[in-house]
């Protein structure tokens, strides 16, 4: 897996404010819906990652339910990070590459979460062209 850390800051930089907005607010709402649906899919998979770190040999629905019961994504990310640290610490095999990849992924996820928050807490408002 290529390192994500080198391009993380530029990939998730806020785009410049547009000179003109969309003419139809439905386009904006559709884009917001697509982005938030994609995030929900990611959160589901991140919960599965937590479950895999917690019980790698079998799937237990209560593990995913515990993950889903936590209110903020930042807290859920801390849960996944703690489970990953315990998982990697409990194996005698060489998991250095896996640990590095996981660190790269968590850095990327942190930036992605910031963008998701900007989208979900945004505001759509019609303005007249001046």
What does this structure look like?
By secondary structure, this protein is mostly helical. The chain has one domain. Helices cover 65% and strands 0% of the residues. It has five helices and no strands. The longest helix is centred in the first third of the chain and has 30 residues. The protein is elongated and about 60 Å long.
Please state the CA-atom Rg, rounded to the nearest Å: 18 Å
Q: What does the average pLDDT come to?
A: 82
Number of domains: 1
Please, how many helices?
Answer: 5
N- to C-terminal separation? 48 Å
What's the story with the biggest beta sheet? none
SSE order, as H and E?
HHHHH
In total, the number of strands is 0
The poorly predicted ranges are 1-7
Structural class: mainly alpha
Helix amount, in percent? 55-70%
Strand content: under 5%
> What's the shape?
elongated
Offer a quick outline of the entry.
The chain has 130 residues and is an all-alpha fold. The protein has one domain. It contains five helices and no strands.
Record keyword descriptors for this entry.
single chain, 130 residues, mainly alpha, 5 helices, elongated
Detail the topology: elements first, then pairings.
Blueprint: H1 8-11, H2 25-54, H3 61-69, H4 73-89, H5 96-120
């Amino acid at each position: 897996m290529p390192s994500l850390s080198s391009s993380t800051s530029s990939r998730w930089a806020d785009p410049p404010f547009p000179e003109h907005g969309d003419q139809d607010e439905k386009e904006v709402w559709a884009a917001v819906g697509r982005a938030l649906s994609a995030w929900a899919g990611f959160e589901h998979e991140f919960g599965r990652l937590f479950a895999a770190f917690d019980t790698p040999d079998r799937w237990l629905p209560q593990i995913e339910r515990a993950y889903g019961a936590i209110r903020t994504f930042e807290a859920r990310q801390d849960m996944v990070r703690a489970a990953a640290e315990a998982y990697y610490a409990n194996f005698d095999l060489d998991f250095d590459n896996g640990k590095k990849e996981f660190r790269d992924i968590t850095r990327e996820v942190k930036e992605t979460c910031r963008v998701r928050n900007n989208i979900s807490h945004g505001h759509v408002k019609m303005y007249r062209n001046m």
